[in-house]
Every structure is written in C-alpha cells, then in structure tokens.
Write a structure and sequence with these properties.
- By secondary structure, the protein is an alpha+beta fold.
- It folds into two domains: 108 residues, no CATH class; 92 residues, no CATH class.
- The protein has five helices and 13 strands.
- The strands form four sheets. Strands 1, 3, 4 and 8 form a four-stranded antiparallel β-sheet that branches.
- A hairpin with a 2-residue loop joins strand 6 and strand 7.
- The protein is elongated and about 65 Å long.
- The two termini are 41 Å apart.
Length: 234
C-alpha cells in the first residue's frame, strides 16, 4: 500500500478532500503538508518508539586491524536494540562490558584499567572498543535501521518523498495512527480511534516474532498434554 493510498484512506475518515496526489501541489496545499508531516512522524514513531521490530533489526560487523579502537556507526543506524551487546570473536563466551558514562570511560582509559572481557562505548558517532581488536578478529552487534520507508526511486529512506513510497511495516497501523493523531490535533474526539490503533499495534507487536514451539505432545488420562514449550527451554 503506497503512502498516497494511506493518506486517501485517512482523508476519507477525518473529513478532508481526498487528494489525487500528495506531492504534485504540496507547496500550496496546507492540508497535504499536514498529512505528509503526520505520516512521517507517525511512521518514525511506530518504527523506533514502540518495539525492536524484526523487520528493522540489522547486524553490524567491524573487523579489527590491530590498531583501530573506534569504528563508525553504520549510515542507517538509528539506535541499539534494547538488548544489544557487543560480541568479539576473540572473546566469544561473554559480551563486552558497556561503559555508559563518558567520564568513567575516560577515567578508565587514563588508568589503563579494563575489564577482562573488553569494554565499549559510543562517542561522536563511533563505537569505541578497548583493548584494540586484534587484526582479523571481528566485533558484531545488532541495531535498528533508521530507514522505515521503501522508496519508489529505489532503496530506503526515513521520510516519504513520492506518492508511491511505502511504509516498510504494517500500513494499517500507520493509517490508524494518523487518524487518531489528526483528530487529536484538530480538536475532534479521538479516544475510540486511539484505542483501535493501540489494539492493532499490540497485535502486530505480539506477532512480530515466532511463537514458542510446542513439543512433547502425549495423552494423560485421556486428554492431550504437553511436556514443554520452546524455544526458551534448553
């Protein structure tokens, strides 16, 4: 579903003229300016603020050369996953220790103090690693891709630029989110619409990754039973 289709559906519900295009006369169409701004805001809000969507999860790798201690973050980097760790191939049993406080990081470097599993932090758009990653060894971590829009021109971006661009997640959630936020912004009753959006979002979040695998089915006292469920059981 293209962003134009989404905006047309939203326009029908909120009571504004259904547009033939969003972008063709954007500079003089205040309503479409608001629609586009809302579409971008809601798409980014859903993508980055609600959960670590599997569709947007990416794994980054950096290869050591025995010299570098800082590696540029990927160009499509938005943020770390909520459970992200840094793993290095020369110390793969335990993740590296994250040092969140910059002053603590500097103090530890000044004292040449380092955890046995290695340490890392983020500064100036770079991943900083200590001690130096040996040549040929790799560090890897997961992050959220900032590009939540499939571009009609090819590739991906973080904003809609064309009527034919598409949201990479569920377009219905985008539509429902735009409806309640438009109504809220324009002084209309929106509580029911916000509830519908929240329900759809929760269902999408709950089904975003595979359900546990049920195994060990048997019969006990004439009724089916299950010995356990995975994948969390070892």
């Amino acid at each position: 579903m293209t962003i134009l289709t989404v905006v047309r559906d939203v326009s029908t519900v909120v009571g504004v003229a259904v547009p033939p295009s969003i972008f063709s006369d954007l500079s003089s169409n205040r309503t479409m300016q608001e629609m586009l701004s809302l579409a971008n805001e809601m798409a980014q809000r859903i993508s980055y603020n609600t959960r670590d969507w599997t569709r947007l999860r990416v794994v980054a790798t950096h290869v050591g050369d025995g010299v570098m201690t800082a590696f540029n973050l990927p160009v499509n980097y938005k943020r770390m996953l909520l459970t992200s760790n840094l793993w290095r191939t020369n110390q793969n049993q335990t993740p590296m220790r994250f040092i969140p406080d910059t002053d603590d990081w500097l103090n530890r470097r000044a004292r040449n103090s380092v955890d046995g599993v290695g340490e890392w932090t983020i500064l100036g758009g770079q991943i900083h690693i200590y001690p130096v990653l040996p040549a040929g060894h790799t560090v890897y971590y997961s992050y959220i891709d900032k590009n939540c829009v499939g571009l009609q021109s090819g590739g991906f971006g973080d904003r809609f630029l064309n009527d034919a661009d598409e949201f990479v997640l569920d377009e219905r959630i985008l539509k429902l989110g735009m409806i309640w936020q438009w109504k809220a912004s324009h002084g209309s009753s929106y509580s029911e619409d916000m509830g519908t959006y929240a329900d759809a979002l929760m269902i999408a979040m709950g089904t975003d990754q595979p359900a546990p695998i049920i195994y060990g089915r048997g019969i006990v006292n004439g009724r089916p039973s299950y010995e356990g469920a995975g994948p969390w059981l070892s």
